[in-house]
Amino acid sequence: MKVQKVVDDIYRLAVNIEDENYLFEGIWPIPNGISINSYLIKGEKNVLIDLTQDIMDFPKAIAEQMEDASLTVEDIDIIVVNHMEPDHSGWLREFCKKNSKGVIYCTKKAIPLLQAFGDVPPERAIAITDGMTLEIGDYELQFFDTPNIHWPETMMTYEKKRGILFACDAFGSYGKVEDDTIFDDQLSQEKHQFFEKEALRYYANIVATFSPFVLKGLTKLSGLDIKVICPSHGIIWRDNPGVIIDHYKRYAEYSKGPAEREVTLVCSSMYGNTKSMMNLVVETLKKRQIPVHVYQVPGDDIGYILASAWKSAGLIFGMPTYEYKVFPPMSHVIEELLVKKVTNKKVFRYGSYGWVGGAQRDFQSKIEKSGWDLLSFYEWQGAPTEEDKENMVKALDSYCDELIKFTE
Ligand code: FEO
């Protein structure tokens, strides 16, 4: 990728992870890649905002882009570390070996992590205080403590004179970024939709657990005149930064419920008896004009299920009893949804059992503290009969009535 001017002497330096088998954070599939962005301010003092991951040739690529902006690693006077996760700090160890003068600005909580991840002594760092400013010639940086967006030590940096927010992981998205479409105003409608979808999946996977902190952070930033958002993943928002701010607000508010009038249907089956009801569920919801997103486990990745569940006000689980309990692949799904604090949902469960049941009891015990409202369930022994199908439709119709009321 090429060095790109954002405005005046502020530049974006970036790389894309393009390996379609790479798992972000070691968990999340990114078949469409992801960009990792750093930002450079050239001036009376040269500032590098966030580094890059130390994989492939990323540090070399960023150093070369810096050189294209007529600077070297040794020329950097100030290193702003908004966040210590290794996708933004992995290069720190080698960077600081080459550059002995750069002063690091980070939060107090990041200082021990500098040592732990990068072998950088605390003496090289200045702990910011919330709202603290730093004048550098024609630039004025202001630092904001934004804990848990998305780890405890995170902060954001705002360039006051130009209204540019360097938000690190906040307002980011999955999806690689092409050199000719780095700004929101360069994207086609189709690309906008792509990044919106990838922003939601990124939020659900990376940030969702900390949604109350996102809402607090948005309140803190609401007094700023933000003209440009420069995230560390994804595109730069310079035409209408309000779009991504509104998306993030909406995503965070889904945690308080209700989310959208949609259902995420997660199906599993051992011998097809539970699966045989899947189409009936889809058809019944469609008749009630409720969009339904269908996933099957094992098979579909939890990262996608999370994004869909986060946005849906309704969750339906199809699972059989397995050894008196919830079918194991579904246990994993439920556990992940709870870890990510997917809450305030209207829920329905159905499934077949063989010799004895047990899944329903186990399911209820698992979701006891979830904030899910289990409206009803339907179980049958073996293969479903015509009567079972009629009963399912009746139960689902009542479920739809409640979901519609919930989302009015
Ligand atoms: Fe992009 Fe939390 O790192």
Descriptive overview:
- The radius of gyration is 24 Å and the shape is elongated.
- The chain has two domains: 4-253, 4-Layer Sandwich (Metallo-beta-lactamase, Chain A); 260-407, 3-Layer(aba) Sandwich (Rossmann fold), CATH 3.40.50.
- By secondary structure, it is of the alpha/beta class.
- The strands form five sheets. Strands 1-2-5-6-7-8-9 form a seven-stranded mixed β-sheet, covered by helices on one side.
- The chain contains twelve helices and 21 strands.
- The protein has helices at residues 58-68, 86-89, 92-98, 111-118, 189-207, 211-221, 241-253, 278-287, 302-311, 328-339, 359-366, 386-406; strands spanning 4-7, 10-17, 23-24, 28-29, 34-41, 47-49, 78-80, 103-106, 125-127, 133-136, 139-145, 155-159, 164-168, 228-231, 260-267, 292-296, 312-318, 321-322, 325-326, 345-353, 372-381.
- The model has no long low-confidence stretch (mean pLDDT 97).
- Helix 5 (189-207) crosses helix 9 (302-311).
- The structure holds MU-OXO-diiron.
- MU-OXO-diiron (FEO) binds at residues 83, 85, 87-88, 150, 169, 232-233.
